[in-house]
Amino acid sequence: IFRDSGVITVAKDFDQVVAEQLDSIDIAACGYLSPVTDPFQSLNAKYHLSEKIIRVFVERNIPIEFITKAPIPEEVIDLIKQQCHSFGQVSILTLKEDLRKILVPRGASTDLLLQNLEKLTQEGIFAVCRIDPIFPYVTDKMKELVELIERIESHGVSHIVTSILDIPQKIKRDVFSTIKKYFGVAMEWDYQRLYRENMDGYLNADISYRKRIFDGLRNACERKNLTFALCMEYELEKGEIIGLNKGVYEFSQLRRN
């Protein structure tokens, strides 16, 4: 509905639905806010659904995590720290604020996102920073990524997660058009050449490019004694989709040897 007409829909009282679902089961995994939308976007300031859902989990002593590119509400901090296995993830794409405004125009500034991480760690809440997604040829310069890792580490973070932009087949023309609008026609051509691997309806950057970036990031994290993981990164091997977390570790070890 939003893509067609700009109408935003809200599942009012969804926290009550979640509460009923949790009360109906005997075993529950960690809650997750949210795989497809930021839980603390501006609309949440009106409905407070994210805080209500977090409260539902915490009251039942079930862990919950969130991922955000927005300022974390104080109420969320107060709730999360009541459940010792709950944690927060903050996505930071770049230290360049002018570039951040293009990539995440409605997100918080990078300084505010770093403050998010510091606030979590100061409150004793496990904090994860996601460099996610990396935009090829835009935010992938290793020197800048290492600088970002150093800034993240200085704010108390010990675990970093990353991925490289994948492009849904259904909107690839829109994505390439947007790349052209902000970064020029040459960049659009570069993306079309790089994004040739089709897996489960998504275009992925060339596997050798992705492994090179991940290898550099893993090594940078290890030098700072940070743990490192990938999110939803795969490769095709003899027609089978294989997760890259283990593979990138082995690739890194081979490079060292």
TrEMBL record:
Keywords from the named record: Iron, Iron-sulfur, Metal-binding
Xref: Gene3D superfamilies: 3.80.30.30
Stretches assigned to coiled coil: none
Keyword Iron carried by entry: yes
InterPro entries (alphabetical): MJ0683-like (IPR040086), rSAM_sf (IPR058240)
MF term (GO), any: iron-sulfur cluster binding
SUPFAM superfamilies in the cross-refs: Radical SAM enzymes (SSF102114)
Entry protein name: Radical SAM core domain-containing protein
Organism, as annotated: marine sediment metagenome
